[in-house]
Amino acid sequence: MKLFMISSDNVREMDVEWLGITTMQGQYIIGAGHAPAIIQVKPHSALMLHLPGGAVTSVPISGGIVHVDRTVINIIIVDSL
């Protein structure tokens, strides 16, 4: 699925198999076909990106909002990428 990480000075686009996020309520895994949602990311946490081919990478962020539909994830990040 397509992932867009959007900050005030950058937009980064990539393909991911799934995204792991930490919220105030716990951890979520978002993959293709996920129900539409708007989720607040826990401040000073990290996004876990499972990339095509099996690599997993961590992206630290100071906070943000995730908008999910069935094929696209948009992350509005409050700090630079």
Give a written overview of the molecule.
The chain is an all-beta fold and 81 residues long. It has a single domain, classed as Sandwich (ATP Synthase, domain 1), CATH 2.60.15. Helix content is 0%, strand content 64%. The protein contains no helices and nine strands. It has strands at 2-7, 10-15, 18-23, 26-31, 37-41, 45-50, 56-61, 64-68, 72-77. The strands form two sheets. A five-stranded mixed β-sheet has the order 2-1-9-8-5, with no helix packed on it. A four-stranded antiparallel β-sheet has the order 4-3-6-7, with no helix packed on it. A hairpin with a 2-residue loop joins strand 1 (2-7) and strand 2.
Write the topology of this structure.
Blueprint: E1 2-7, E2 10-15, E3 18-23, E4 26-31, E5 37-41, E6 45-50, E7 56-61, E8 64-68, E9 72-77
Parallel strand pairs: 1-9
Antiparallel strand pairs: 1-2, 3-4, 3-6, 5-8, 6-7, 8-9
